[in-house]
């Protein structure tokens, strides 16, 4: 069976990846890689049978996603349309057959009729984070570089009494260029309150709920999220919970150096990350490879997931702290220098000294690589950081440390 395309071959002409009956909605041809999302519309195929399925391949290193036989016939579905991402029809797949390999299909391809792209001004990859006790930051991306970095917001749907203007950035990594990344701080906001908001003047309305000012408060903690079937079930579990704030201790998108994976991850988590604050730190899979002309690490993470490091006197977006509802939370970096004499170590000493237990009786730490675990293949991964910083946490009587990296759930009794 001949491969249809290889997602790892970045030099392919995107038009060569499409079935003959694929008609892009623009007169100029297939939307560019900067156009992030769209709606796939397909027609009934003469090849349909009960074992057929519709599916699409994501970016390099990820399994194909099968959208299911229930979508056969004519229909539409929100889906990715990127230079290295397209959708295929898989007719007559044998029941229980092994998953198709990247770049392969079974039988004829005759699924897609046209793709309708979203507006270049449309906000996407929307997520929110806390900035101080009564402010939130709204982050989103647009294809159109002229979209203003403004957020209108209010307590009722469709009624926006306040407006804030923020900043924007973008970045390049090798041949990839990001969209316009907007960061807008809004507030002051009331605690435990739902706000409705729009981004960049676009009509799409989002809603968020601010954390409570006092106990009780409910944290969700999820590490190593990625973009797999496990991610889907994790997000479904989160959606069923009424949590106030999410901590994500590293390995968000598993992009490494594959930049489109940041875009697909942002779209994947937007339905939840736009409604509750997501507070993150980096993991090893946020670190780009050192390539010719690319010496900066964590370029994508720092541009896309701006955290309140300046508000906690940190010089790096990779480690910071914040207060929420009687808890002081410190997000540490396992991937940057942490030994005595480093900037992170000095910042941690200062931040711990500033804790006021009358205001924040609980103290939490979140980092990527655990200092203790029972995985035989991962012993010692966090030993250097443990040796450097554990005594500081003991002396400060830190209550809980949350970590990721090991893809299994473990917990330990109090160590001090």
Task: Give a concise summary.
This is Purple acid phosphatase. InterPro entries: Calcineurin-like_PHP (IPR004843), FN3_dom (IPR003961), Metallo-depent_PP-like (IPR029052), MPP_PAP (IPR041792), PAPs-like (IPR039331), PAPs_N (IPR015914), Purple_acid_Pase-like_N (IPR008963). With 416 residues, the protein is an alpha+beta fold.
Profile the largest sheet: 4 strands, mixed
CATH class of the largest domain: Alpha Beta
Oligomer: single chain
General shape? globular
Kindly state the percentage of residues in helix.
10-25%
N-end to C-end Cα span: 61 Å
Low confidence ranges? 1-118
Secondary structure tally, helices:
5
CATH fold descriptor of the largest domain: Purple Acid Phosphatase, chain A, domain 2
CATH architectural grouping of the largest domain? 4-Layer Sandwich
Helix/strand class = alpha+beta
Number of strands: 24
Supply the CATH superfamily name of the largest domain. Answer: Metallo-dependent phosphatases
What structural keywords apply?
416 residues, alpha+beta, Purple Acid Phosphatase, chain A, domain 2, four-stranded mixed β-sheet, four-stranded antiparallel β-sheet, 5 helices, 24 strands, 26% strand, disordered N terminus, Purple acid phosphatase, acid phosphatase activity, signal, metal ion binding, EC 3.1.3.2
Task: Give a description of the structure.
This protein is α+β, with helices and mostly antiparallel strands and 416 residues long. The protein has 2 domains: 19-117, no CATH class; 131-141 and 212-402, Purple Acid Phosphatase, chain A, domain 2, CATH 3.60.21. Helix content is 13%, strand content 26%. The protein contains 5 helices and 24 strands. It has helices at 229-239, 260-273, 299-304, 343-353, 383-395, and strands at 23-24, 37-42, 53-56, 65-66, 75-80, 87-90, 112-117, 124-130, 136-142, 150-154, 162-165, 167-169, 172-173, 176-177, 180-186, 194-199, 205-209, 219-221, 245-249, 278-281, 320-324, 327-331, 362-366, 400-402. A 4-stranded mixed beta sheet has the order 1-7-2-5, with no helix packed on it. Strand 23, helix 5 (383-395) and strand 24 (400-402) form a beta-alpha-beta unit. The longest helix has 14 residues, at 260-273. It is globular. Residues 1-118 have low confidence and may be disordered.
